Amino acid sequence: MGGRRKFASASRPPSVWDVDHLRRELESIDVDWRHGEALLTYLAHHPEVTTWADVNWAALKRRVPQKLPAFLEDAFSVRSTRVASRHDSKDGTTTKVVVELRDGAEVEAVVMRHATLRSTRVTCCVSSQVGCAMACSFCATGTMGDRGDLSRGEIVEQVLIARSLEPSTRNVVFMGMGEPLNNYDSVVGACRLLLDSQYLALRAGRVTVSTVGVVERIRQLGEDEPRVGLALSLHAPDQAKREAIMPAARGHRIDRVLDAVDAHVALRLPLITKGPLIMVEYILLGGCNDSDADAEALGDLLEHRFAGRLMVNLIPYNPTPDLPYDRPTEGRARAFQAILTQRGLLCCVRVTMGSDVAGACGQLLKKKRGAVDIEDAAG
């Protein structure tokens, strides 16, 4: 559970995508939920619509009662969030969007375009909290502390913003600001809307939640929503080193975390028959956790885990002002990868995207208004 946010002075009503609230309000005026579903289907298919004035009510008039538009305009927002600023990388692969929430807090979402042989694959990285309580020593977001949870609607709206920029957005990763499993109900609720064939219609496996290892929630996610993929932010091959760079690891022993992921994978095996079922994220911090010995220890830790259905994603550290780490050389990253590959593990080195707009892994951060932000410092 995140910190408390203050909505008393909110300038906009809550999101129409906060569907439990929407359902209750429609029931209070004797409007059947099927009309709410029709409205959400329309909005999901028209991400360019951001206000009630933009809605083509004529196209919906057979599916919604006459009294509904006026009621909705007072009680809900088509978009409770707004784009405060947009930052495009020089190479065009990455767009970082600063999203202002209705209470004035800000989070960041990132749209990433990956060129493939046949097309461009577009992924949206969303935030689930304002700040983060995990305080990972290599992550800019961790310096903010925990400032509160996002609602289901505020999460979905980030994806709709991405769809308005890139209609072909087909992958969503919860790797932005926050620990998603500490905002469990909103995150799972948002995932279900993203996967619902009526709404955003993403396929099973196209939505991935990243966690530092909230043990009880890892197991629960596999039971509640096995269509959602899991990425484990491991970042060290043993408990002592993990605690040194990730203070929250003191409450999540590495053996218990891996056991929970094994249980999660077992629940997904019948649903996803091909490909990796778990991504293990490992940030390479130059001179800290990137030695050959670290690679061998990581191989020992993982080679008999997760039914062999895993991929190790090595992430060379993206330098961030005021954080005490260096980026490893490309040769060091490749040597680390080679050791894991020789151990029979599927392993890749993540291509850095968006570092010139502070949209790369570990760089998302919002400071107080008027302060220098990372994108300014990145020049």
TrEMBL record:
Xref: CDD domains: Radical_SAM
Single Gene Ontology BP annotation: rRNA base methylation
Entries under Pfam families matching the protein: Radical_SAM
Record-annotated Radical SAM core domain positions: 118-356
Keywords: 4Fe-4S, Cytoplasm, Iron, Iron-sulfur, Metal-binding, Methyltransferase, S-adenosyl-L-methionine, Transferase
Reported cofactor(s): [4Fe-4S] cluster
Predominant location: cytoplasm
Any one GO CC term of the record: cytoplasm
Subcellular location: Cytoplasm
Molecular function terms, GO-annotated: 4 iron, 4 sulfur cluster binding; metal ion binding; RNA methyltransferase activity
InterPro entries: Aldolase_TIM, Methyltransferase_A, rRNA_lsu_MTrfase_RlmN/Cfr, rSAM, rSAM_sf
PANTHER family documented for this protein: 23S RRNA METHYLTRANSFERASE, RADICAL SAM SUPERFAMILY PROTEIN
Protein name per UniProt: Radical SAM core domain-containing protein
Organism: Pelagomonas calceolata
